[in-house]
């Protein structure tokens, strides 16, 4: 895992890479620059909006801030991905609540061997967050590519035979209605589980935690 972390990008570097590709009229998908350019522009605008406007729920911020951890969240992504555009700015806000969590970004299509270790139902779905202990490189768990309710919504539409463009449009409507609630609650709960480890479970009581040994 360290080899991927060593060549990954910070959030600032990842955004700069997207902006540079847009300025140069390029993207990371070989041979598809014209077809993908509109998705880069649209998703970059979504990310800018969320970077400026999204705010964590206070109970989520408190839960994340209370963790005593030293983690790297390695996130597999691409600039053309609509789910990444909706989720990554929120993940950044969650990680920023704890100085012990560092986010790093790596492109899916340049790292197929890594992506293939973290498939979703056999597909290279992104974004995929991989939580790693900084010391030792132990993989604690993953999240992605969508909040659970959104993934169910996606599967229902796919099974109903809807065309992909319509599914993608409906997913964006779902994200707009959800306003980031599902993702931040899911990731906060996962982070608590990762911090406690596999032998313990937790129960949230207000802003306090009751930890129980199994």
Summarize this structure as a short list of keywords or feature phrases.
alpha+beta, disordered C terminus, Glutaredoxin, two-stranded antiparallel sheet, 214 residues
How would you describe the overall organization of this protein?
- With 214 residues, this protein is α+β, with helices and mostly antiparallel strands.
- The protein has a single domain (2-213), classed as Glutaredoxin (3-Layer(aba) Sandwich).
- The protein contains 9 helices and 6 strands, in the order ααααβαβαββαααββ.
- The strands form 2 sheets. It has a 4-stranded mixed beta sheet with strand order 2-1-3-4, covered by helices on one side. It has a two-stranded antiparallel sheet with strand order 5-6.
- α3 (33-53) packs parallel to α5 (82-96) and α4 (58-65) packs parallel to α9 (181-196).
- The protein is globular, with a radius of gyration of 17 Å.
- The model is unreliable at 200-214 (pLDDT under 50).
């Amino acid at each position: 895992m360290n080899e991927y972390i060593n060549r990954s990008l910070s959030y600032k570097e990842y955004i700069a890479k997207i902006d540079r590709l847009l300025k140069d009229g390029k993207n990371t998908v070989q041979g598809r620059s014209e077809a993908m350019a509109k998705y880069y522009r649209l998703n970059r605008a979504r990310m800018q909006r969320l970077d400026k406007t999204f705010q964590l729920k206070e109970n989520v911020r408190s839960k994340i801030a209370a963790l005593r951890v030293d983690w790297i969240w390695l996130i597999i992504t691409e600039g053309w991905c609509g789910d990444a555009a909706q989720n990554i700015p929120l993940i950044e806000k969650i990680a920023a609540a704890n100085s012990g969590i560092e986010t790093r970004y790596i492109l899916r299509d340049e790292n197929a061997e890594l992506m293939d270790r973290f498939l979703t139902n056999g597909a290279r779905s992104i974004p995929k967050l991989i939580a790693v202990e900084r010391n030792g490189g132990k993989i604690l768990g993953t999240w992605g590519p969508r909040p659970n309710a959104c993934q169910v919504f996606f599967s229902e539409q796919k099974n109903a035979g809807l065309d992909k463009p319509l599914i993608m449009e409906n997913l964006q409507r779902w994200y707009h209605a959800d306003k980031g609630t599902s993702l931040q609650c899911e990731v906060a709960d996962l982070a608590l589980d990762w911090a406690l480890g596999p032998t313990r479970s937790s129960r949230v009581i207000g802003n306090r935690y009751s930890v129980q040994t199994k």
